[in-house]
Amino acid sequence: MTNNKLIDLVNISKSYGNNVVLDELNLYIRENEFLTLLGPSGCGKTTTLRIIGGFENPDKGQVIFEGNDITKLPPNVRQLNTVFQKYALFNHMTIAENIAFGLKIKRKSKAYIQDKINYALKLVNLDGFENRMPDSLSGGQQQRIAIARAIVNEPKVLLLDEPLGALDLKLRQDMQYELIRLKNELGITFIYVTHDQEEALTMSDTIVVMNQGYIQQIGTPEHIYNEPENAFVADFIGDSNIIASTMVEDKLVNILGANFPCVDVGFGRNIPVDVVIRPEDINLVKPEDGIIRGRVVSLLFKGVHYEMGVMAGDLEWLVHSTGLVPVGTEVGILVDPFNIQIMHKPESEDEQAAEIVE
Amino acid sequence: MVKKFVERSYIALILIFLYAPIGILIVLSFNASKSRAKWGGFTFHWYQELFHNEAIMSALTTTLIIALSSAFIATVLGTAAAIAMNGMNKTPRTILMSITNIPMLNADIVTGISLMLVFVALKFTLGFTSVLLSHITFNIPYVILSVMPKLRQLNPHTFEAAQDLGASPLYAFFKVILPDIFPGVLSGFFLAFTMSLDDFVITHFTKGPEINTLSTKIYTEVRKGIKPEIYALSTIMFITVLLLLVLINRRGTEKKVPLRKV
Amino acid sequence: MNVLNKLTRHTENSERSLQNTHVNNVKWLSFPYIIWMSGFILVPLVLIIFYGLTNKENGFTFDNITLISDPINRQALFLALKLSLFSTAICLLLAYPLAIILNKTKMKSNSFIVLILILPMWMNFLLRTIAWQNILEKKGVINNILAFFHLPALNIINTPTAIILGMVYNFLPFMVLPIYNVLIKIDKDVVNAARDLGANNRQTFMKIIFPLSLPGVISGITMVFVPSLTTFVISTILGGSKIILIGNVIEQQFRLGNWHTGSGLSLVLMIFILFSMAILSKYDKESEGSNLW
Lengths: 358, 262, 293
Prior knowledge:
The structure holds three protein chains of three kinds.
Chain A: E1 5-16, E2 19-30, E3 34-38, H1 45-53, E4 60-65, E5 68-69, E6 80-83, H2 95-105, H3 110-123, H4 139-151, E7 157-161, H5 169-186, E8 189-194, H6 197-203, E9 206-211, E10 214-219, H7 221-226, H8 231-236, E11 241-249, E12 252-255, E13 258-261, E14 271-277, E15 282-285, E16 292-301, E17 306-312, E18 315-321, E19 330-335, E20 341-344, H9 349-357
Parallel strand pairs in A: 3-8, 3-9, 6-7, 7-8
Antiparallel strand pairs in A: 1-2, 1-4, 4-5, 9-10, 11-12, 11-14, 12-13, 14-20, 15-19, 16-17, 16-19, 17-18
Chain B: H1 2-29, H2 45-50, H3 54-86, H4 90-105, H5 108-121, H6 128-153, H7 156-164, H8 169-198, H9 201-206, H10 214-221, H11 228-250
Chain C: H1 2-26, H2 31-52, H3 63-66, H4 71-104, H5 110-118, H6 125-136, H7 141-148, H8 160-185, H9 188-196, H10 201-230, H11 233-238, H12 246-255, H13 259-283
């Protein structure tokens, strides 16, 4: 990944009737970056992708590609290619014809096209499928063909619209590795749209969390996971306990009546905040050793860990732990200071609205 | 903008093409002159006259009875057949579907003639019954093709679930399967009814000299001139259907409307 | 299409399970229909073949078939072929743009479009055709309009042109609907994918949209061609008594009681119908006729 901006979205707005899908969106994508647009359905992520691809025109704003304004350019002359949600293969053509489609339009030589077909099929591990028809392939295979069809055109950017959405879990995980490998081999920019936070965390260099047409947070997967900027992000990325609390002073927060030491400073005194604590960051100890006391009220075995509900301070805390604590046990709750993430209460109405939805 | 205007105009032209003759027929039903060719002033006369014209009223009755009963019988037979075919293996189902398609794709004149030959071979007097049997025959495929897609959408496990909960197969059918496929059954019925009502060719060959439906009655009058009462009757029928459809659409019933060659 | 295939695959699986559990309960439901079908679809076809290949003494003969080479019959067949091909072509040329426009309007009331095309059928089709007499005849609507603009009158009624017009009028909806029904099922993203891969509007249409709409086109062609080829009503009403199509010849033979001759000529007609049906089924395997509406 370099620091050159490849695509710059400037003040993009888009609405359908009264429904505002994107509102003054600003975002840049760097060369050779794997950027994921992540959010619930209706958050505007697919619309953003389709505006980059040229399938939608923004009402306002510009799409800048390598310094040129391409906002009004139709999709067939843009130097980027899309992998569609349900693959959108041409079912009346063979696999080879599907892959050759873009190259034939560019009037490439027969030999060149043949080379490209062989190369692309090898790349997606589907050698020998040239003469098959798309509907004789499994979902995962069709997905690979859709990718092969796009990359033979040597786009600078590959747009992927929930490409794994229609696959089952195991296949989805395999394809995630495959996509990372492809990205590294091709050395091009990927813009990836998904609602699956795990996919986003696994593959991306950068995650853009979106909700209700607004960008909620941009950052690396680690950053987004460990330091969510608001309750929406915290809630959307992984399980978490989001608790309305009060910042007593620097490095001390009052959660449900108990004072927890933390590492955040600069919020001021007695300021209402939201606190995010990941379930795996909560340590269950003897009642007298905890900062707050509680009682285990539910217990589920989840394979790698136990999921417990702990009633403490009139709130059921979600706790993940590898150790089993039977239901009814009195426990104390302890959290390492650096595992307590303090967030400002949302300020604008928009942000609040954005939170209510999920 | 220009493109949109051209597109709109094109739709409008086609619609004028399709509806102009209907407009003319409605105008003719109010024409005081008996002749089709000249306008003799506005009148409701033919609408009053219509109900006293026994030949037309009897043709109407025959048409409606045949349309209703053939549609009903075809719906029962066709729905049963569709359910059975849906449960079959691919090969027998394909064979049955191909045969089912024959009356739809075959020319009406051939269907009509071949049915007539059967009735004659069986020494069956051509008349009401032969027309009814013929109409049922060409109606069944439309019912099957309306019901089949609904059956395919059906979750097969609901039927099992009903039985699992203690329902007898028959009870499960009426409580679980039928409500799900009912829109298809209903549109099959309307389709069959429409086809029967609009049929001329097959009726022409299978009716014998004794009876007339509206279509065959009109055909006998083509040369000597159509009685204006017929325009009045057709206008009433057309407007009735139009109003019914508007009402149904108002209530937001998403019904697939039927179609067939004339 | 992809999804469609999955769906069919899925339903086939479901069918299997449906079949395992209660196939024995429902198989009998098809028996009345199978008996009916044999009696009223298959036996009639066998009979028409039998009549077509025998003479009045029930002796085997090809005479009824070869009668088609009789000048009058041959002309009637050729004229019917010519007029039906013309009307099919005109229907296709009128219907395809219409289907595209209707598909573009994104009117979600799919049924409304179907309705508007079907509604005329509720006016008896003989009457609708007769109304064209009013429009086309010497002192008809068209000539009145032309006279108003001081243009020369057209002489259309009782010509082959009038018959073609009648065919196009009656069968146009059967061309529009199958094409429209196929077009609305084309995945928008398949079209987008073609654009994405560099195809311009014309290339997208030629390489993607048209090939994918072919089943609808074929089905439309059959649904216009077969009834046009075999009609005797339209030619009777709009062609006057001088223009005779093969449909008129066959109808006349039956009216005169020459069933063997009529059946023989029908068999010739059926060859053409079978031919177009064969083409149809080649392109339309899976949908089992559901393209028709």
